[in-house]
Amino acid sequence: MNPLSLIMIGLGLIPIAIGFFLGYQYQPASPLYLTLIIIYFVVASITRFDTRLIQAKMQGQDFGELPGWTGFFSWAQWGLFCALAILNWRVAIGLFVLKFILKFLPVLETIGTLLMSPFKPRA
């Protein structure tokens, strides 16, 4: 495992620790938390699609690139996870596991393809 991965894991554990020590247990069924969850998965799907395009380009298959402003979504994904972890750390861990599963199934990539299809360059 490279050092950058270890740093990212460490940074992901910080909001979970903050939420744990502050004792917040925000209700996951509340409108605010559900909205944050939906936005988190939409942003994660766009980020995953962008990652797949970059991986394909590195392997020699150029499917084009998304606009530069989509790089904001990777930062937004971390920010949303931090907010979710501080509000309810137990649910945030479950969401992270669910995102990890959906990441290896093509679900997030397919949703990202549908959402970003107007912005993909045509071949």
Can I get a quick summary?
By secondary structure, the protein is an all-alpha fold.
Count of individual beta strands? 0
- Ends apart, CA distance between termini: 36 Å
Radius of gyration equals 16 Å
Following the backbone from N to C, one meets helices and strands in this order, namely HHHHH
Strand content: under 5%
Q: How would a crystallographer describe the biggest sheet?
A: none
Q: What low-confidence regions span 5 or more consecutive residues with pLDDT below 50?
A: none
Overview of this protein structure:
The longest helix has 28 residues, at 31-58. The chain is an all-alpha fold and 123 residues long. The model has no long low-confidence stretch (mean pLDDT 84). It has a domain at 44-123. The protein is globular, with a radius of gyration of 16 Å. Helix 1 (3-22) packs antiparallel against helix 4, helix 2 packs antiparallel against helix 3 and helix 2 crosses helix 5. It is built from five helices and no strands.
Key traits:
123 residues; single chain
Topology:
Blueprint: H1 3-22, H2 31-58, H3 72-87, H4 89-104, H5 107-116
Helix pairs in contact: 1-3, 1-4, 2-3, 2-5, 3-4
